[in-house]
């Protein structure tokens, strides 16, 4: 009998709370898809280093999953408590009929169990289907060719999903039982009748609080954007975040009081059609929902920033490789072994290795009996120099003190890398970069790390002179020039000083670089070659000589691809979960609102409002509730993304627009979708029966 | 005198062929402009069904209802809404005020869905609130008002649009006797001002304020009495006489 009751209850509520079931199914499906990602890569033809990255990604994703399950757990508990509250009257009737609280708990238990099993089955089915699509995305991302299409099913992900959601449902059951045992019959029966009293807030207080919170919010925005460079430690960001959260809350609090007052003063608009009804409806509710609106707004903000941040990072990283890793390989070896003996000793090199740190990279390979140059189609050898005579302290010259107060944590005592202009031009020619020329008494700084470029430009604009090996040099340009020596996936060149060849003192030789393109082009063959080079490190010779450290295009590419895949997946995972959680809460609130308003819409019908007018009023009411948190979240996001752009500086942010568009599409799709589902369900609820 | 309402051979059946309930069984009557008519009957007699049919809330099985010459049984969809909105005013037993709106806004709502201008709205609400003595509560919410005040606000909402016909379904049903008396006196006053009111009740005291009482029993008109020149007290006694004759539930209601 009790089971039958539960079944009937579910059947009845499925129609009204379709959005809740929909969200549960979506949650399960997404959870499965992201936890099953590795099973798709198993059959792909990927290198071992990519495999390592995938493993790392899965570890990250499974720790993110724990966080995700907390969010979903919160959503499920919130939603089920919320739905239960709506059934107070029903439970009241059961209790007056003499049913024990234990039996009511059982009804709830059975309902949760049924919903849980149902959502898990449907969700997993959807998830398995979705993950087939996902395998194409994964293959595309890791640039692996999908040799054949195979239906993949991850048992471990399936078990994990069932386990995590099982725990969530169990907690819901405990919560339900506790709240049933606590409730009082009189409250259950009268719960529906106590209508909320409409309290109007003091408008002057509202205006005051609105202005204050706007100022505080503006300050927080300013702090994370304009004053970005003064944020030195992670904890520095906490204060603007707290300011942002508090001001968001108080803006909604004051707006709830102000919007009605404001529109009321425009009588022509207020007393037109059902506008007065819609606005009253909205403001009677916002008084009590300021808190949830704030949470939804902040979650939307996080979603927008997260998605655009991750997608930008991914796009930029992929775009950077072409430009920043233009040749196949670069081998670097230090040349100043004896001079910097303590440093290298400290580093863990043995004495003979250090003693031999004066051979060029090519020579070292020859000592290893490995004719590296025979593999190259073209190659160059260049040197860099360094001296304690020229550190950042010296380069910044008279600007040092003012910069030091602004950026106290820069490494001012590091020796600046110096290059002969002819050497640099050799590199630039090979890389396809801009070549430079200069006079004997001039120097140029090439750099592409934006924050550092800014610092250096201060000194360059001031025409700071430097002295090097007994010469005094003045800057040729008032700004840093674009360029780099070391290949990487990011813009990380903090500055290389280019000077005329003839003033260089060979005593201060610092590093030797061997840079070139292979003759072979096949990916597999290159992998083999690079593996053979790496194996040299395990030969006996390696005890005597230090193997030049290689930085190859392939390795950079693989790490970048892996990293960008990781970032994308984590961003999408978290972003979508955040988005569906907060929209589901919003949708549920609106739906229950609509069933509360059923009577009111009935009254409107009785006094002659036609369906079109009523639907318009309903549409507006839901639209306002969905739009309000979104608008503020948008404003937050503008500054959030500006902040992210500054963090992303090393990656370059040319790819910002496409990722913002992608984010907007995801947002419109999910948020807009939920909005329309909510509207149609609400329309169904208020329909005349 | 002009006919505002003409009900012609109205029938309303419920249920299926096998178990047919004739809620309204061939009723015909007319209401003239400015009349205050009361439909009286026991619960289940069909009086509320009749009112719902006239108010175009319920559909008739056969027969015609003319309001101001327009056959409302032929209206559909938005025409019905328009008719309800512009020609009728409703007063319900449970007030049906919107609890989120103030009294003023509740009254204004019925004007604003007719797209009346704000200036006209203000003038009309001022007038009607004076007539019904609710000026003091205009800025209050329903939960801050007494039942009588609520019903007077609801009445104001019904008549503010100048409807051809005001339909009142047990307007005193949820009121205490003092508030009921006050409301009925207001109805009487409105009637003298020229409003046409059709009221449904099972209470003889309430009915005694009307100028004509139509008794309904089992879906048929049982008897019709006019107040004529007699006082309210005498009219009340006359009603009681008919009620006694009617027997049944109505006796219990007294």
What does this structure look like?
The complex is a heterodimer of chains A (689) and B (254). In chain A, strand 5 and strand 6 form a beta hairpin. Chain A has 24 helices and nine strands. The model of chain A has no long low-confidence stretch (mean pLDDT 83). Chain A is an alpha+beta fold. Chain A is elongated, with a radius of gyration of 33 Å. By secondary structure, chain B is of the alpha/beta class. Chain B has a domain at 33-45 and 90-253: P-loop containing nucleotide triphosphate hydrolases (Rossmann fold). In chain B, helix 3 crosses helix 4, helix 3 (103-112) packs parallel to helix 5 (147-159) and helix 5 (147-159) packs parallel to helix 6. At the A-B interface, helix 12, helix 22 and helix 23 of A face helix 2 and helix 3 of B.
Task: Pick out its properties.
heterodimer, A: 689 residues, alpha+beta, five-stranded mixed β-sheet, four-stranded antiparallel β-sheet, 24 helices, 9 strands, B: 254 residues, alpha/beta, Rossmann fold, six-stranded mixed β-sheet, 9 helices, 38% helix, globular
How many helices of chain B? The count is 9
Strands across the major sheet of chain A, in which order?
Answer: 3-7-4-6-5
Determine the structural class of chain B based on helices, strands and strand pairing: alpha/beta
What is the overall shape of chain B?
A: globular
Q: Provide the β-strand percentage band of chain A.
A: 5-15%
Main sheet overview of chain A: 5 strands, mixed
Estimated helix fraction of chain A: 55-70%
Summarize this, please?
Chain A is built from 24 helices and 9 strands. Chain A has helices at 2-16, 18-35, 37-42, 48-85, 88-96, 101-141, 155-182, 185-190, 203-224, 238-265, 267-270, 275-324, 341-347, 351-355, 361-367, 392-396, 400-406, 421-431, 450-461, 523-535, 553-596, 598-606, 611-647, 656-686; strands at residues 329-334, 376-385, 418-420, 442-446, 466-468, 471-475, 496-499, 509-518, 549-552. Chain B has helices at 47-54, 77-87, 103-112, 118-131, 147-159, 177-193, 204-207, 232-246, 249-253; strands spanning 3-14, 21-32, 36-40, 62-67, 70-71, 88-91, 165-169, 197-201, 212-217, 220-226.
């Amino acid at each position: 009998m009790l089971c039958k009751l539960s079944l009937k209850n579910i059947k009845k509520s499925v129609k009204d709370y379709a959005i809740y079931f929909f969200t549960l199914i979506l949650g399960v499906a997404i959870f499965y898809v992201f936890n099953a990602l590795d099973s798709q890569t198993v059959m792909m033809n990927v290198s071992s280093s990519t495999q390592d990255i995938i493993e790392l990604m899965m570890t990250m994703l499974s720790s993110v999953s724990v966080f995700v399950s907390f969010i979903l757990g919160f959503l499920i508990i919130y939603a089920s408590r919320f739905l239960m509250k709506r059934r107070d009257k029903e439970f009241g009737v059961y209790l007056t009929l003499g049913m024990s609280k234990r039996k009511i708990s059982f009804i709830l238990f059975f309902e949760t169990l049924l919903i849980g099993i149902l959502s898990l089955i449907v969700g997993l089915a959807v998830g398995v289907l979705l993950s087939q699509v996902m395998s194409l995305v994964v293959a595309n991302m890791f640039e692996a060719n999908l040799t054949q299409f195979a239906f993949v099913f991850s048992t471990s992900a399936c078990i994990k999903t069932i386990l995590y959601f099982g725990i969530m449902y169990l907690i819901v059951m405990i919560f339900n039982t506790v709240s049933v045992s606590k409730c009082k019959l009189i409250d259950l029966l009268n719960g529906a009748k106590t209508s909320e009293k409409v309290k109007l807030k003091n408008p002057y207080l509202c205006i005051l609080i609105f202005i204050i919170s706007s100022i505080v919010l503006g300050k927080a925005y300013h702090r994370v954007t304009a004053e970005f460079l003064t944020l030195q430690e992670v904890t520095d960001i906490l204060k603007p975040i707290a300011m942002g959260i508090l001001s968001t809350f108080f803006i909604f609090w004051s707006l709830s009081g102000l919007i009605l007052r404001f529109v009321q003063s425009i009588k022509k608009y207020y007393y037109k059609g059902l506008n007065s009804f819609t606005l009253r409806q909205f403001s009677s509710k916002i008084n009590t929902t300021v808190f949830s609106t704030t949470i939804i707004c902040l979650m939307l903000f996080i979603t927008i920033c997260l998605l655009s941040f991750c997608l930008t990072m991914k796009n930029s990283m992929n775009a950077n490789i072409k430009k920043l890793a233009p040749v196949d390989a670069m081998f670097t070896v230090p040349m100043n072994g004896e001079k910097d003996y303590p440093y290298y000793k400290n580093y863990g090199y043995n004495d003979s290795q250090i003693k031999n740190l004066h051979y060029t990279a090519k020579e070292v390979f020859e000592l290893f009996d490995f004719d590296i140059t025979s593999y190259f189609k073209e190659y160059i050898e260049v040197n860099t120099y360094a001296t304690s005579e020229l550190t950042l302290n010296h380069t910044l010259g008279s600007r040092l003190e003012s910069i030091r107060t602004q950026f106290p944590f820069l490494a001012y005592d590091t020796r600046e890398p110096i290059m002969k202009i002819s050497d640099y031009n050799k590199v630039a020619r090979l890389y396809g970069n801009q070549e430079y020329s200069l006079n004997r008494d001039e120097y140029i700084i090439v750099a592409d790390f934006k924050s550092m470029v800014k610092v250096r430009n201060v000194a360059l604009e001031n025409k700071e002179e430097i002295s090097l090996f007994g010469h005094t040099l003045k800057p040729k340009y008032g700004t840093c020039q674009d360029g780099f020596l070391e290949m990487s996936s990011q813009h990380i060149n903090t500055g290389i000083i280019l000077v005329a060849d003839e003033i260089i003192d060979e005593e201060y030789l610092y590093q030797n670089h061997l840079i070139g393109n292979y003759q072979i082009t096949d990916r597999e063959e290159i992998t083999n070659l690079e593996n053979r080079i790496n194996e040299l490190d395990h030969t006996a010779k390696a005890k005597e000589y230090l193997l030049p450290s290689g930085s190859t295009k392939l390795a950079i590419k693989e790490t970048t691809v892996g990293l960008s895949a990781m970032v994308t997946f984590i961003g999408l995972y978290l972003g979508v979960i955040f988005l569906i959680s907060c929209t589901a809460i919003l949708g549920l609130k609106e739906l229950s609102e609509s069933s509360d308003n059923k009577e009111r819409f009935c009254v409107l019908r009785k006094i002659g409002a036609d369906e079109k007018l009523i639907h318009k009023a309903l549409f507006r009411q839901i639209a306002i509730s969905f739009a309000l948190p979104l608008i503020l979240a948008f404003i937050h996001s503008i500054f959030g993304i500006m902040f992210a752009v500054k963090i992303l500086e090393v990656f370059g942010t040319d790819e910002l627009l496409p990722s913002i568009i992608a984010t907007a599409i995801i947002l419109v799709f999910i948020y807009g979708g939920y909005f329309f589902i909510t509207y149609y369900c609400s329309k169904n609820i208020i329909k005349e029966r | 005198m002009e006919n505002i309402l003409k009900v012609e051979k109205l029938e309303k059946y419920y249920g299926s062929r096998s178990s047919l309930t004739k809620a309204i069984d061939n009723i015909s009557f007319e209401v003239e402009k400015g009349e205050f008519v009361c439909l009286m009957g026991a619960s289940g007699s069909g009086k509320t069904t009749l009112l719902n049919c006239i108010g175009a809330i319920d559909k008739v099985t056969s027969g015609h209802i003319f309001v101001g010459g327009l056959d409302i049984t032929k209206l559909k969809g938005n025409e019905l809404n328009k008719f309800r909105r512009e020609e009728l005013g409703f007063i319900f037993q449970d007030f049906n005020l919107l609890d989120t709106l103030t009294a003023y806004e509740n009254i204004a709502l019925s004007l604003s869905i007719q797209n009346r201008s704000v200036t006209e709205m203000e003038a009309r609400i001022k007038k009607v609130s004076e007539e019904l003595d609710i000026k003091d509560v205009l800025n209050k919410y329903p939960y801050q008002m007494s039942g009588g005040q609520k019903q007077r606000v609801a009445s104001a909402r019904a008549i503010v649009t100048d409807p051809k016909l005001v339909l009142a379904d047990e307007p005193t049903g949820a009121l205490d006797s003092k508030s009921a008396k006050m409301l009925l006196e207001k109805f009487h006053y409105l009637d003298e001002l020229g409003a046409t009111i059709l009221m449904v009740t099972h209470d003889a005291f309430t009915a005694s304020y009307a100028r004509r009482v139509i008794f309904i029993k089992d879906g048929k008109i049982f008897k019709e009495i006019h107040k004529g020149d007699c006082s309210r007290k005498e009219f009340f006694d006359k009603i009681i006489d008919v009620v006694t004759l009617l027997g049944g539930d109505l006796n219990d209601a007294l």
